[in-house]
Amino acid sequence: MKILVSDLDGTLFRDNIICDNDLKSLATLKDNGHKFIVATGRTLEGVRILSEKFNFEYDYLVLCNGSIVMNSSHEIIYKKSIDNSIALSIIKDYIDCEDLYIYLDTGTESYVPVNKYDKKLVAEFADNIKVLNNEKIFRLNCDFQILCFNSISNSIERVEAIKTEIISKYGDLVEVYRNTHFLDIVPKNCSKGDGLNHILNEIGVNTTNVYTIGDSFNDLPMFEITDNSYTFHHVDDLIKANANNHVHYVHECVDHIIKSS
Fold first, then answer.
1. Distance between CA atoms of 138 and 228, rounded to whole angstroms?
2. CATH at residue 209
3. How many Cβ atoms are within 10 Å of 20's Cβ, its own excluded?
4. Distance of alpha carbon 146 from alpha carbon 98, whole angstroms
5. Which residues form the domain of 248?
6. What is the pLDDT of residues 153-195, one digit of tens each?
7. 195: helix, coil or strand?
8. Which of 74, 107, 123, 224 has the greatest number of beta carbons closer than 10 A?
9. CA–CA gap between residue 224 and residue 176 (Å, rounded)
């Protein structure tokens, strides 16, 4: 048995679609007795939106960049949260920043400050968003799985600067990952690689049988787990330097898995 671990946004889900060849390859993978793991910055709700729209199945989920790990029945294998006080302190630092959309998620509930709300953008990741004024945001009494910042102007330089600031102030408490002009803030010691290791420890699969594919910096921790790491020809050179194989589409990676079985 081999395992494909794939990112979603920018990897499987590109230009608002999952291409037919990729979907067919995932079905073939499963038909041949192999497993498919989704590893994403999305929450369960965000994955559900895509899995229902494009009709694909998975065996495990690494959600919120590793802060939640689930099996296909959505039973929790691992969960770690950002403490309420830390999360709200980070939000307070940036809630008045004009160039940012802000999104907070507990894993089951999604919140957006009313002055930081882009309905179209947020709808891609969750239904039933609760849009709150700042006073209500800071009265929330819950811990969070992930905080997301998005540069309105699509400025990579701006989000890199914010990433540096957050790591400088909160680096002992959270991890910060950049995906183009998005930032994902998750609990300390959470990554896609850590989440994947929780699954591998449970099912006892050797890493030589694991194949990982992604397109961004938050995918690098899972590239480190196996020599069968894949990314795309078009991505940042720093990402390509950390992946041993470069392809155009996910189905090319699946073809390699099937042929090596």
1. 44
2. 3.40.50.1000
3. 10
4. 21
5. 3-79+190-260
6. 999 999 999 999 999 999 999 999 998 889 999 999 999 999 9
7. helix
8. 107
9. 18
